[in-house]
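Q: Got a minute? One more chain.
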Amino acid sequence: METPGWIYVVVTILGIIIAVTLIGCLLTVLAIWTRPVLRKLVNAPLVSLSCTDILSSSFGAPLLIHAFLHPDWEPPGALCWLQSYVTIVLWGASSCHMACIALQRYFMVCTNSVYLKSKRVLFIILLLTWLIPTVSFLPIHVVEEVKVHPKLKRCGLGASPNLWGKIVPSILSFYGPFIATITLYALIRYHVRKSKKRVGAHLGNSSPNNAAEKQLTRMMMTLFSVYTVCYMPLITMAMFSSRVPREAFIVGQVLMALNGALNPILYGLMNRNIRQGYKHIWNSMLNYIV
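A: Always. Here it is, folded:
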């Protein structure tokens, strides 16, 4: 079967997205790790989210490219199971990271509790961010047979009749965190508008620390908006796969992959310290090469 010409365009776009994601996310991790001004508790979720994007681009996207170029290829059973499980867990981890970041912002902006802003609490939240999708999707992957989805061109459980086995983990890993994130950001905005005097110590002053806090909150909200545009179309289409054309799934998967490439760009555009960290690493690499 001859591969259509437009598939090569999609594959080229995916290849560029993978390269930008890997370079950008690695730069983010290195910048936060090596720069003292960035090596703070508040940036830990960004490192964790960058690791999620790196794993997605290293594992899921290359298999998707192979499936586009070789539509008749059937992956071995073990690889098919691994692709289905790891892909859905990483999708869920991305959604849970959005809730984790929003919850951290809520603690920083709307509470005065030192305990809620502690390293211990953040560690627990990050642990749950990875644990919830990892555990919630495991039972159905153990009891159900994983097959290649004819439209998604990847292994999955879209055709499984076990509705509750899919709905429960989807609520825990996708829709629950998504609704929680929207709610938390709405509470933050309400808190800022309703109690300017109280929030002034965090966001209202013109001091560098307060300006940076306001900038960081704005960046996180933009991050969530971009995540919504990139992720939710495919997640929604997957729930109604029988009524969605194959081409729509391809667009949805490209959008989802694009999110990992856009995140580091957003960090650099909206955070001066991260932008300077990128420049410092690039300059160090160029000096080393020259």
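A: The domain at 5-277 is CATH 1.20.1070.10 (Rhopdopsin 7-helix transmembrane proteins).
Q: Perfect, thanks.
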